[in-house]
Amino acid sequence: MGGGNAQKSAMARAKNAERAQQEGKGGGGAAGIKSRQADAAVQAEAMVMREKLHAERAERERLRLEKEAAAAKRAAKLAAASGVKAIVEDDATTKKKKAAAAAAALAAATGGAAPKKKEKAMSRSDSTSKEMDNAAKKGEVEEVMETATNQEEKKIREFHDVEIPEPPPLTEEELAAVRASIAEREIISREYAEKEAAAKAAIVEEESVSKARAVIASKGASWKVSADDFEKLLLVARSTSAKGGDEAAATQSLLDELLGASPAASLVIRALTPDTKVLRMQAVKACAEVVKAAVAAGKGTQAFQKLMSVLDTPLGDAATDERIATGTLSSISKLAGSVDKSSVLALLERSKAFFNGDSLESAAAASLAAGAHLREAIAMGTIAADAEPTAQLIASLDEMAKANSPAEARSAACGLGVAVGALGAGAIVEHGVAQKIIEAMDSKSKTASNCRESATLAVGMLCRALLFKFEPYAVPLLPKLVKLFADKDKRVADGATFAARAMIEGLSTLSVKLVVGALYEGLGVVGGGGRVRIECLRLAGILATNAPGTMGPCLPECIPLVIECINDSNAKVQTAAEEALPVLCSCVQNAEVASTLKEFILLALRKPDTTLECVEEVLMTTFCNPMDGTSLAFMMPIIIRGIKDANYELVKKATVCASNLCALVKDSSDIAPFVPLLMPLLEKNKEHSSPVIREVTVKAHTALVEGAGDLVDPAKRHKVLADTVRASLSSMHSDLPAELLDYLGDTSAAMLDEKLGGVVRVQYFRDAVPQLAEWLSSSLSGIVAVDAAGVTAVAEAAVEKFREELPEESRQMLAKSGDKDFALDMQNIILAFAGRVLLRKADVRFQRGHRYGLIGQNGTGKTTLLNRLAAKDINGFPQELRTWYIRHEVLCDDGVDVRSFLKEKAPEGRKDDALVEDVLSRVNFPEEFKATYVNSLSGGWKMRMSVAISMMHEPELLLLDEPTNHLDREAIDWLTNHLQSLKGVTIAVVSHDYDFIDAVCTDITHYDNGGELGKPCRFVYYPMTFSEFQRLKPEIAAGLPRVDHAPFPTGGTPSEASEAAPSVDGSTAAASATSDSQSESAASGLSATFSKVDEMIAAGLILPMNFPDPGKPEGIRTFRKPVMTLKQVSFKYPETDRYILQDVDATLTLGSRAVIVGGNGSGKSTFLKLLIGDLEPEDGKGETWKHHALRLSYVAQQSLHHLEDHVTSTPIQYIQARFRQGLDAEVAKLKTIALTDEEKAMMDAPSAIYAIVGRTSKGNKPWYEFQQRGKMKQETQTLPLTEITMRFPPYVQKLIKNYDQKAQAIESGMAIRPITEAEVLKHLADFGIDQQLAFGKIRQMSGGQRQRLVICAAFWSKPHVIALDEPTNYLDNDSVAALTKALKDFKGAVVTVSENEAFVAEISNEKWVVEDGKVQCLQLRSAKAR
Fold first, then answer.
1. What pLDDT is recorded for position 1013?
2. Which end of the chain is more exposed for a tag (fewer CB within 10 A), N or C?
3. How confident is the model at residue 13, as a pLDDT?
C-alpha cells in the first residue's frame, strides 16, 4: 500500500511539474510554488516581456506621430494649392471631410477632378471663411492666420490641455457650510453602513432562530427544550441593557433557576446539551445575560459557585459533557472581577482537569476562562502578576520542553494559554515564549512528538488568548504548522490543525497577505492522503469569509491551485475544493462578476465543457465596474482554457473576451500576473489558420499591451510604507522585537492600502492618521510605554509617504478636491456594453446641488450610465443616497389610471391618496386627466406624471434621460422651470436639446475620447453653462449630435446656433422666432448632410438601409390611387368621455409620404394606430378601409415593443421566429386582426363562419369563400364583402383580414421565402447589420441598432405601406441620414409620426396636422411616379 501511494505521489508530482512547465510556471508541489514566487528565471522572463511591451508601445507611438506629421504637411500643401483657409476642428469626421475637400481641389487644379466636387469643396471653404469672419466680428473667436501645419500641431498639443476656468473661491461662511455638509454626510453614511450591517446580522440571526425552532418542533413537546422554553431564551438573549418588563422578568426567572438547588437542570444549562449549534448559540447568549444580571444584583460569587458545580456534575455522555463544559466555561469567564482570589485559584485547579481531557474545545474554553479570571484579579490587585501567573508560565514552558505524554503536552499548552492570557503580550517578549515554542516544535528528542504536539497546541491557545497581539510571532510559524498537517503522528497533525484554525479564525484583516503564501504552498502538496490540501482549502475559505476585501487580491495565485485540487484523484480533496470555490468567489467585489456571472463562472471552473456558455455570457454582460485582480483570478483560467481549445468558435470568442477584459482592468498590476500566460498564446494565434481568429488575436494582443501599462511592481509602495513605519518605530523604541517591527510595518502598509488605495478623497487622508495611530498604539500597549504624540507622528509620516507614492493624476485630484461637497464621488469607473468599452478610468464626481449636462457622441453610453447609477450597482455608489431616474418613456400596463399608477410608485409607507393629490397639484395636472389611463396620455403629460413620482421620493440625485422627447415648447418650458427650482438636489441630464441643457445645467460633463472614434471616453468637467462651454470649446460643440440631427455651427448660444444653421447654398439663414422658420433651417442643414450620403455610404462611413421593391397591389396601377382611407372616424378611450379624434378623414396613396404632426396630447399616435388597425374606431363612428391586397408593416415608438420577448435571441432567430408561419406575427397582433376570446367562442356557435378559404374578384369587388359550422368542409359559400359585412358579426371581418394577410404573403413571396440563416443574413446586411451583430444577442444591441433591426424585420414582407412612430428617437446622425435616403427611394407609401422637424421636411409630401380632435391634410408637393 505504502509503495503504491508513493508511486502515485511521484507520478502526480511529475504530472504537475510537466503542466507547470508548459504554462511557464515551474515545477509542481511546494517547490513549484516557491519557484513561482522567487525563481530568478521567471523574473528575468517577466523583465524581458516588460521591455518588449515597452518597445512595442514606443514603436506604435513613433509611427503615430510620424503619420500625424505627414498628414499635417500634406494638408498644408493641399490647403495652399486650393486657397482654403484651414481652421482646426476637434472632430475626426470633420478632419476627413477637410482632407477630402482639399484633395479634390488639388486634383481639380491638375485636371483630375470633376467640377462638381471642386465647387462643393470651395463652397464649404467659403462657408467656413464666412463663419470665421462673422465670429471675428463678434469678438468670440480670434481670426486664425496660422498655416495648416501649425494649426494641426497646435491641435495635437492642446487637445487634452483644456483650460477650464476655476469657480471663484468660497467665502468663510460658505466654506463652513460645505464642511458641515460633508461632516453630516459622513455621519449619515456611517449610520447607513451600521444599519445595513445590523440588518444583515439580523437576517442571519433570524435564519439561525428559524432553524432552531424547526429542530425543536421536530423533537416534540417532551424534548429537553420546549418551544416555550426556547422563546424565553430568545427573549433574554435578544434583550439589551435597557430591559423592558417582559425581558427583565424572563432574565430573573432564568437566574432564579440557575441559583436554585439544581443548577444543572436549569434552562440555560439544559439548552447547552443538544447537538444543535444554533440552539446552543442562543443558550450561551442568554446565559451571558443571566450572569450580567447576577453581577448587577451582587450575586456574582453565588453564580460562580453554581456554574462550578455544573462542571462537577458530568452526565456521562462525553459529547454532551463537552458541550455543557464549553458553554459553562464561557459564562464563567464573564464573572471575572466578581470573585475573590480563592475562587480564581479554585477555577485554575478545576480547569486542569479539562486540560488533560480528550476535548480540545473544552480545554481551550477552560484555558480562556482561567486566563480571564487571572487577568482581572491582577488588575484588581487580588493576585500579583509575578506570583501565581508567572509561576504558571515558567512551569508550563518547562513542561512543554520535557513533555513525556499527550496529557503533559496538553497541560503545558493550556497552562501557557492561561498564564500569557493573564500577563498579556509583554510576557511573550520578556520570557522568550515564541523562541521556546519554535524549539519545541523542532525538537528531535525521543519524546519529540509530545513536544511538537504541545508546541502546536500552545500556538492555538495563545492565538485565542491574545488574538492579534500574538500574530507577530504566530504568523512566521504558519509554514511549520502547514507541514505538520501531514505529520505521521496524528496528535501532532491534529494539534497543528487546531493551531492553524485558531490563528486564521482570529486573524486581523491586515495580516491576510502575510499568511496566504504558506497556505498556497500547502495547496501544492501532493499525497499524504490529501490532508494538507484539504486543511489549506478550509483555511482559505475562512479567510475569504472573514476578510473578503484583503483575501480577494491574493486569489490570482490561489484559484489555479484550487482548480488543480478539483482535478485531484482524491475524492475528499475534490469535494473540499468544490466547497471552497464559491466561498472564495464571495471575495469578488465587481458587481457583474459577483452576481450576473457568478454561477456561470463557478460551473465553468468545475466543468470545462461549459466554457463556451460562460464566455458567451461574459460577452453579453454590461460592465460598470473595473475588472480587478480578484475578478480576473476567476475569469482568466476560463479564458485561457478557451483560447487553447480546438473549437474555432470558442477560440474566437475567448480571445475577444480576453481583449475586453484587458481593456477593463483597473490597474496594470491587476493584469500583470496573467501576462506571462496570455502573451505566448496570443503570439502563437497570430499565425492561426483562421483569418477571423488572427484578426481578433491582434486586437487582444494590443489590448493586453495597453492594459499591462508600465507593469509597475505592485509591492513597491507596500515595501516603502512598511520600511517607513518600521524605521520610525525603531527610532522611538530601539528594544522592540524584530518580529513586532516587521509585523507593524506590514500591517500598517496594508491598512493604508485598504483605506487610501481606492477612491482618492481628502477626508480619507484626514481620517487615516488617527486610524493608523490607534492601530499602532493598541499593538504596542502592554509591550512598551506608548507615546501618543510619537505614534501620531509615525502615522502622519506614513500617510504623507503614501501621498507621495500616488500617481501624479491622483495627487492632482487630491489637490483640486479641497473641501468640495460631492453628492457622488466614484473614481476610475468602467462602462462596457456589447463587448465594447465605452468609458474607461472615468470619474463620476457630482457636487451637491449642481446640475450636470452629460454631452457626447451617440453610442458612448450616456443612457447606460444613467441606468447603472439608478441601479446603484457601481462599486462605491453611496447606497444611502436617495436616487430617482426619470426615463424618456413610461412603462405601464393597460387599464391603469394616473392616480393608481402614482400610488403604486409611491415610496413604502407613503402610499396614500393625499400624497398623490398633492404632487399632482404641484405639477399642475388637470383634474380631468387624473382618472385617465396612463397609456392614453401624451408624452408631455407623461413627463409631468414622472416628475410628480420623483417628488414623492424626494431624491438627492435626480437622473433624466432625453426628458424633452415628444414634448412641445410649453411642456419643455415647464420642465425647465421645475428643475431650476429644485434646491440642494444634484441633477444629471442626458439630452440632445442643447437649449434645454443651457437653461437647466450649471455644469457640463463631456464624454471625451480624444477625438478618436471608438476609443473609450473619460469625463472632462466644465463648471459653466452650455453657452459658455460652446464659446470655450467650439470645436467640441460643433461635433455634437443634435435633437434635429442638423450640424451644430460654432459660436453663440445653442439657439443662435440653430438660427444660424447654414443653408444648402452656403448662405446663413436669418434668425426667426417662428417654429416654421426654425424647421426650415434645420431641414436645410440636414439636406446639406444628405447631399453627401451616397458618397459616405460608398466610402463605408455610413451603414446603408436598402428597402425592397414592394410592387403594386392588385388593381392599383398608379401612385395616386387610394390604398387606405378613414371616413368620419371618431375615437375616445373607454375611461374618458373626451374624444381624442372626432369625424376625421384621411386618404393614403402609394405615393404618399405623410407625416403626422401636432402638439403633445393631440392624438398623433392614436390617429396612426387607427389608420393601421391597431385601434378600432368608436362603434358607429365612421369607417376604415384598406385595400384587400395591401401589405402593411408597423414600427412602434419603442423598439422594445417588438423585441421585448426576444432579447435573449439573436437577430437571425428573431426574424425566423417572427415570420416562422409565413406571416408577420407583429401585424397579426393588431387589434383589428387579432381575435378576442369572446370572438373565438362565437365561432363555435351553430351556422357561425369559422374559416375563410378563398377570395376572388367580380366587377372589381372582392368575394370571399367561407365555411360554416354544421356543414361539410366542401360545402362552402361565396358572398361579396359588402354582404358579409352586413349579415355576419364583426369577427368575420377579422377572419377576412387574416386571410388577406396570407394571400399577401404568398403574392410577395414571403410565404415561400426561405427563412434560412443565409437568407436572413443577406436581408440584415441590406440594413447595415453585420454578421457580428447578427450572431450576437439582441440584448447586446444599442437602441439605434435595435431600431435598425425592427425596421429591417418590418421589410421582410416587402410591404406596400410602412408606418413608423418616432423612428429617429434612437438613431444617430448617420443612421437618420441612411433611413431618410431609403424612405425617399422607397416605392411604397410612408406614414410616420415624428417630432424631428428636419427629418419631416426632408421626406414628407403631405403633412397631416392633428389639432383639437381634427385632422387637416396639407399637400406639400405632389406624389412622384416611380
1. 63
2. N
3. 46
